[in-house]
Design a protein that fits this description.
The protein has 212 residues and is of the alpha+beta class. The chain has five helices and eight strands; from the N terminus they run βαββββαββαβαα.
């Protein structure tokens, strides 16, 4: 039986942070719009900011569907599956916002991801999600699969880009500045990437920049 949680802590947080991959689902308001479902990986690119707020780094890619949907309506669901250990599926339903490079909150949020070098991956935004509903369910039909390692292809592809060439890459793609359905996507031209704010002491770790 599924269980509803009031917050992301304890064993639930431990489970989420241990998974090497998660999925994000978004959709436009239009009834005939394109529903989007994306896999997310790369160790260190996800963080629990507090008991009701999570965030992940949005890296370079050939589309920007999640960003476009969040800019229009903010709805998002994140899902984690246990591919090893007890069968568990966790979903966080909530409201998301893409925080872009020129946002005053960007550098402080970026400091919450000390385990990854975002410069190698063409970081374009940080997606912050405020949880409205947190639930788990059984994962009896989810197969056992072993995690071996992160792929290094994304870093190899985008590490050679600077801000100017990355902007040119995004500009020439059909579905970066606008979604498949024509919604506003990644704002271009791409602002320069700011330096992360200094890492805060552990005692202040729970503080999170305000996100509407």
């Amino acid at each position: 039986m599924g269980k509803t949680y009031e917050r992301i802590d304890g064993r639930l947080r431990t489970f989420i942070e241990a998974q090497p991959v998660f999925f994000t689902a978004t959709a436009p308001l239009s009834a005939d719009g394109t529903v989007n479902l994306s896999p997310k990986g790369l160790t260190g690119s996800f963080a629990v900011l507090d008991e009701l707020t999570v965030a992940y780094l949005d890296f370079a890619g050939s589309t920007a569907e999640t960003i476009a949907h969040l800019r229009e309506n903010g709805r998002i669901t994140l899902m984690w599956c246990a591919f090893q250990g007890p069968p568990t599926v966790v979903r966080v339903h909530g409201r998301g916002e893409p925080v872009f490079r020129d946002d005053p909150r960007f550098s402080e949020l970026l400091a919450r991801f000390p385990g990854i070098d975002p410069t190698a991956h063409g970081l374009r935004a940080i997606v912050v999600v405020s949880a409205d509903l947190i639930r788990d369910s059984c994962g009896y039909a989810v197969p056992f699969m072993a995690y071996e390692a992160d792929r290094d292809l994304h870093g190899k592809r985008f590490a050679r880009e600077d801000d100017a060439s990355l902007d040119a890459y995004f500009t020439k793609k059909d579905h970066i500045a606008a979604s498949l359905d024509g919604l506003p996507g990644l704002p271009l031209p791409l602002p320069p990437s700011p330096s992360p704010a200094p890492r805060r002491p552990a005692s202040s770790e729970a503080a999170v920049p305000d996100v509407p």
